[in-house]
Amino acid sequence: MELRSDVTGTRPVNPTGSAQQVSVAGDPRQDVYARLMALAVGRPVAAEIVSQSESGTSMVRVADTVVQMDLPADAKVGEKVTLTLLAREPRLTFLFEREPAAHSMVSNTGRLIDNILRSLSQDGSTATLAGRTPLLPTPANSPAAALMLPSGLAAQLETILSNMFSTSGLFYESHLAQWVAGTRSQATLMEEPQAKLANLQQNPQQAIARPEEQMNRLETLQEKSWVASLMSKAASKLSSVMQQQHPDRLEQVIDRDAAGMIRMQLDALENRKVIWQGEFWPGQEIEWEVEDETPREKREYGEPEQSSWQSVLRVNLPLLGSITATMRLTGDTVQVQLGTADEASVSLLREFGPELVSALETAGAKLDYFTVSDETA
Questions:
Q1: String of b and e for 323-356 (b: at least 16 CB within 10 Å)?
Q2: What is the pLDDT of residues 350-373, one digit of tens each?
């Protein structure tokens, strides 16, 4: 078994080239030989140096077996290397590669992510999405006005709230992939902040023809190889769209805004929580928090845990005062808890609680329990 020990890079190797120094593996048993012969030519496999002898030979674990090889003099026990089978005849010949140093693997994207994560840990707060405009234009300057809200408000709010996170920009990269695949419309994609970061000052054909520049500016969270492929596909589609809509201008990416969005994306990935703050209608503030509580660890025997989500809505209403509404969805089971520090509101919520329970059950929710808690204590 030959090992080209003088090759430590990842450049192509010509097996028929001039003779080079090689390393020869020891004479393995037939079953060991069969395992090595089963390796695919050209496919890298992980290996580890497990021991070395005084004579200079090394024992290497590869393909679930240990074989004896002559390795470079500076090889160390415990070192992880990569072996690639180059040829089976006349003898097994491997390409020997060392794993690159960890610092050489840190890309610009990695450094950006590291800097943002450091700022997150120093800040200590959860990044929050801020609503720029009220969800509803209806004013509610008095309790009487609050009772005069338009009919069909629930359905209207359902649509608004369901689209709020979708168009927030937190999931822009996955939405971009859906758009390229034809499963998301260009109109909905253009509603997200990243799509509005353009200044359209350049020629659209030139800007879109260089997708790698856009990739470097946006510094997405996906692997760069995937992003490059995705952006090359998106470029051809974006070209015609931008030509029609903005023939003479293409905005430059605003780095500060892009970095702010990436910070929120990283925070959501780290804490599995998203917070939105805004207004229901002018003057009516609201905070909405959605958290993924699904255990990260799998159950015994490798079974995945049931998905579990918690939604917390905090609002100070004209009649009921400060209300915290918590809804937890585990699998297809729902738990609802309403909390308030106003004694009169506690009584009122408990009085009309059965109507909420009935509405949830009518909607098909499997209600586990419903409670109203007094938070005055």
A1: bbbbbbbbeeebebebbbebeebbeebeeeeeeb
A2: 999 898 889 888 888 889 989 999
